[in-house]
Amino acid sequence: MTDDYLQIMIESLEKKIDILDKVIELDKRQLNISLAQPLDVEAYDASMDEKGELIDEIGKLDDGFTVMYERVKEPVAENPDLYREKVKKLQELIRIAVDKGVSIEAMEKRNKQSIQAALSQKRKEIRQIKVSSSAATKYYQNMSKVNYIDPQLMDRKK
Description:
Layout: H1 2-35, H2 41-78, H3 84-146
């Protein structure tokens, strides 16, 4: 029974690593989206939603892994030689998952900086458009008054 639980844990970690690979791909896609001009906000949001679903799935896998670990902790501690190969495999997979997690964190920081820069650029563009629009409006208002001559000889009393 403990062997089966260990095998389930191994499969869970392998699935988690696959999902982490997908998250890494999404992070790369998000970086490309945030660097592209003009910024495609809908594509960025879609990738964020997709990544959110993957992260939820990782959370479920982690919860299941914890439940399985609690079941096998004592039997493995009592007979470490019996389960040595599977424990080594689990340790290797955990190391790979942690490395991928660290890589994802670094990519998330880069993506955050990139999207902040893109949004800052977008704000500047919007501000410039507002300034240009305001200047054009003022120009047209002033120009419409150029040909207007105030009546000079008109009696203003009534």
